């Protein structure tokens, strides 16, 4: 239920913001607005305010603002100056562009609010890189804290400034941008091996691999988490062996364990011939003392094939940092992040069109609903971040030059401005049909990706 409510709130709020942009721009230009509808289909609620009817409809996946227009029916001569089609080209373009513009402005304000309130994020301290991965080949180690990044293309390496990396989320964002750009990066780290500058060869990755699994392909396992035991399940292998909550695992079978990633890998690797897990000798630290315990993992499965488990939480919480800015800096950072997300979204869409990025990145309502529910349960800041991301996406999507969208209408107005006459009704009809087909294809693909993710195929 919380997922459904969070989804409805997200879509309802951002659609209302979008349509409010059109509505306010139309009113400012003297256009008569007949209806302001949130949702489509059968009206659930309706009320009249002045000359405009406000409607809350059954299907919440969109909305519209209906303006007086002679192309849609006869207009009283007294109202003709207030018809949309009678307005100058600049005013019509302003009204159409106002919806996406308000979505982008909303994202700026949400991101600014997050920076003003304070964002608690994991520090950019790395867990164990996957063996043989790009991160491992670069020399990154568990416990390395990433201090800064810069491009390492020969023409830029000596000129580009080091960019500080304040959080793990920022690290992932910058690596995504670098992969899309197709260049390597230099990484300045400080950790068990001292302060070092390493080359991470991202240029070897195909830009089509930029998706939610990019971090794993680079070899990043997530923020550093100590190899600490959480609450053991009663009568499970961990409890039977005498492991307790808070125990720090130092080694298994005499081999050091650096973090929670390695601890999980060693447990999973305990299977011997025949598929039975063997007993492992844990060297643990408890209240300043070292103890040796024999732990017999048990095969179990939550999803996928059975794996050896000790039936206890593994890994402590990553170290967090509170990032907070003053009002002016928060607003600047909100604008910068909105531009970054918008540009990245456009680049991803462009690469998907030419086959250089995976079409799996296209998400639909099921993925949005799931993300809305998860972020809402995680707290205010994660949910605000999700709202901002969806608001940017709505703004960018509506500016695409497709006939069904605001961007398509803006293209019409550009053509009208260049030729001095509007596009003919016959061409408008053809373009609308083509745009509808493209939108239907995109929605079908997004829904397919949603279902594939739910079924574990992506």
From TrEMBL:
Major subcellular location class: membrane
CDD domains listed in its UniProt record: cpPDZ_EcRseP-like (cd23081), S2P-M50_PDZ_RseP-like (cd06163)
EC number: 3.4.24.-
Keywords of the record: Hydrolase, Membrane, Metal-binding, Metalloprotease, Protease, Transmembrane, Transmembrane helix, Zinc
Alphabetical list of Pfam families matching this protein: PDZ_6, Peptidase_M50
Domain PDZ: 212-288
An MF annotation (GO) of this entry: metalloendopeptidase activity
GO cellular component, as recorded: membrane
Membrane topology: Multi-pass membrane protein
Cell compartment(s), UniProt: Membrane
Cofactor field: Zn(2+)
GO biological process terms, semicolon-separated: proteolysis
SMART domains in the record: PDZ (SM00228)
Family listed: Belongs to the peptidase M50B family.
NCBIfam families reported in the protein's UniProt record: RIP metalloprotease RseP (TIGR00054)
Name by which UniProt lists this protein: Zinc metalloprotease
UniProt source species: Aquariibacter lacus
């Amino acid at each position: 239920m919380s997922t459904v409510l969070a989804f409805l709130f997200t879509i309802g709020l951002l659609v209302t913001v979008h349509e409010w942009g059109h509505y306010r721009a139309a009113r400012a230009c003297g256009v008569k607005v007949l209806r302001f509808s949130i949702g489509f289909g059968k009206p659930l609620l309706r009320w009249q305010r002045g000359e405009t009817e406000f409607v809350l409809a059954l299907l919440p996946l969109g909305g519209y603002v209906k303006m007086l227009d002679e192309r849609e029916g006869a207009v009283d001569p007294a109202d003709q100056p207030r018809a949309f089609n009678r307005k100058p080209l600049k005013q019509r373009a302003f009204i159409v562009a106002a919806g996406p513009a308000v979505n982008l402005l909303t994202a700026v304000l949400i991101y600014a609010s997050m920076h003003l309130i304070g964002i608690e994020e994991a520090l950019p301290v790395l867990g164990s890189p996957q063996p043989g991965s790009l991160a491992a080949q670069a020399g990154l180690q568990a416990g390395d804290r990433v201090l800064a990044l810069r491009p390492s293309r020969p023409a830029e390496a000596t000129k580009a400034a080091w960019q500080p990396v304040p959080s793990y989320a920022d690290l992932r964002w910058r690596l995504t941008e670098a992969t899309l750009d197709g260049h390597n990066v230099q990484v300045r780290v400080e950790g068990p091996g001292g302060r070092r500058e390493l080359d991470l060869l991202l240029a070897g990755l195909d830009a089509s691999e930029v998706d939610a699994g990019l971090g794993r392909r680079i070899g990043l396992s997530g923020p550093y988490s100590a190899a600490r035991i959480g609450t053991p399940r009663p009568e499970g292998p961990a409890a039977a062996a005498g492991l307790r909550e808070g125990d720090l695992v130092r080694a298994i079978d005499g081999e050091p364990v650096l973090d929670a990633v390695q601890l999980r890998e060693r447990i999973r690797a305990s299977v011997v011939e025949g598929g039975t897990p063997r007993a492992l000798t844990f060297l643990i630290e408890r209240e300043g003392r070292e103890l040796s315990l024999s732990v017999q993992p048990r095969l179990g499965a939550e999803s996928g094939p059975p794996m050896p488990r000790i039936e206890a939480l593994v890994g402590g919480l990553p170290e967090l940092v509170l990032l907070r800015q003053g009002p002016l800096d928060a607003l600047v950072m909100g604008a910068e992040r909105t531009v970054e997300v918008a540009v990245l979204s456009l680049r991803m869409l462009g690469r998907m069109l030419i086959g250089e990025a995976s079409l799996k990145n296209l998400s639909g309502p099921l993925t949005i609903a799931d993300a809305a529910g998860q972020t809402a349960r995680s707290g205010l800041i994660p949910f605000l971040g999700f709202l901002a991301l969806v608001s940017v996406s709505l703004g960018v999507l509506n500016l695409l030059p497709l006939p069904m969208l605001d961007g398509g209408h803006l293209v019409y107005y550009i053509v009208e401005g260049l030729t001095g006459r509007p596009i003919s009704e016959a061409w408008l009809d053809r373009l609308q049909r083509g745009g509808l087909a493209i939108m239907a294809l995109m929605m079908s693909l997004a829904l397919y990706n949603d279902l594939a993710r739910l079924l574990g195929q992506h």
